[in-house]
Design goal:
15 helices, globular, 0% strand, 384 residues, mainly alpha
Length: 384
């Protein structure tokens, strides 16, 4: 399953962009509404809400780390208000860099997962793996900064800082040189491993190839909103949702099933509760996805009605709400609407590195191999 939903999305995104470009050309064309709904609302915003199943919807997690899950949103909201009150672009710039950091770290986290059985390899090999996956994501960001403005933004216009032209180009050239050297060394290492030991870590190499292809194509090679949005969101959002679903479902399967009700009325109430429960959402992947998309639709509907007014055809039911233009109101409203995102970005730096409970179960589709410790990968974490 991880092959389809974690390893394949970056390669699929790159293929979609190539196919779109061949069929329609016009890489700078705006994103069609239907594509915005699928990519931004359903996948990008939806993956933010999948964190609920790793945190607030997990009773064990709330019992063990409830303070963290309470304090982080509060701090994010206060800091967000302070930044927006100072200047709107200060808020969006901070959020853009936080998001970019989160996206970069996710790819490193998956690299750690797929390298977990290589503990006998020299330390410098692991460092080379880390360098390659980081440079595959960081170099395109350096290129972006050296070639502002681009035909796309992370969130809003000017959210990435315009560095002095000469300095930005020096950084970009240095990044490219480091990327090239690391890439050559990495390929050489993998060829040597296959030639001398007949060892080839296919998942790890697919991850590296997919990450490099999606990030380079979406940011460096092409300069268009469609290319960036497709590669950025598909390669990040789908794997994250898959990881959370695999984790939460496997953990749920090892928990005690609910005791059946003794009366007919109790059975009916229990059936309704079960239908609406987290357990049901995790049992049926389509329901899990529909739930996340519904939350994304509500959030984006509020954004569109109160702030943006860009997709009335999608969010007609929300259009009776007044658009807010007053800066003082926006100073608390925008951070409030962005709170799920901010909380997701910050909590993700904690939830995969906290020591798991003994009862926790982990996605065997990713981790289990004969002789493996099925919980070891979490201890080595997505975010060491």
């Amino acid at each position: 399953m991880d092959g389809a939903f974690i390893l394949a999305p970056p390669l699929l995104a790159a293929a979609v962009v190539l196919g779109w470009r061949a069929a329609y050309g016009g890489e700078a064309d705006p994103l069609p509404v239907w594509a915005w709904v699928l990519l931004v609302m359903a996948i990008d915003v939806g993956h933010v809400y999948s964190t609920l199943f790793r945190t607030y919807f997990d009773r064990d997690e709330m019992a063990r780390h409830g303070t963290l899950y309470t304090v982080v949103p509060a701090i994010c909201f206060v800091v967000g208000m302070m930044l927006y009150n100072w200047h709107a672009i200060a808020f969006w710039r901070a959020l853009a860099y936080l998001a970019a950091f989160h996206f970069v770290r996710q790819q490193y986290g998956f690299m750690r997962i797929y390298s977990r059985r290589e503990k006998d390899h020299p330390v410098w090999w692991a460092r080379l793996d880390a360098a390659v996956i980081y440079l595959a994501t960081v170099y395109p960001l350096l290129y972006w900064h050296a070639h502002l403005p681009r035909a796309f933004e992370w969130f809003v216009k000017d959210d990435f800082l315009a560095l002095p032209h000469g300095f930005a180009h020096v950084l970009e050239r240095a990044g490219w040189a480091a990327y090239l050297v690391a890439g050559v060394l990495y390929v050489g290492k993998e060829v040597w491993l296959w030639h001398s030991r007949r060892y080839f870590n296919a998942p790890k190499n697919l991850l590296v190839a997919g990450t490099a292809a999606a990030w380079y194509m979406g940011i460096v090679w092409l300069n268009g909103d469609i290319a960036f949005t497709v590669t950025n969101i598909i390669s990040h959002g789908i794997p994250y949702m898959a990881l959370v679903w695999l984790y939460a479902r496997r953990k749920q399967e090892q928990e005690t099933a609910p005791v059946p009700a003794s009366s007919a009325a109790g059975a009916s109430a229990a059936w309704l509760w079960q239908l609406l429960s987290v357990r049901t959402l995790l049992r049926w992947a389509p329901l899990f996805v529909v739930f996340l998309v519904l939350l994304g639709w509500v959030e984006e509907g509020l954004w569109d009605a109160l702030v943006w007014r860009e997709h009335a055809s999608v969010f007609g039911i929300f259009q009776s709400l007044p658009q807010v233009r007053d800066h003082n109101t926006l100073a608390w409203l925008v951070p409030l609407l962005a709170l799920p995102q901010m909380t997701h970005y910050v909590l993700d730096g904690f939830i995969w590195r906290m020591q798991p409970s003994p009862a926790a179960a982990y996605p065997t589709a990713i981790t289990a191999r004969p002789g493996d410790d099925s919980t070891a990968w979490m201890k080595h974490t997505l975010h060491d």
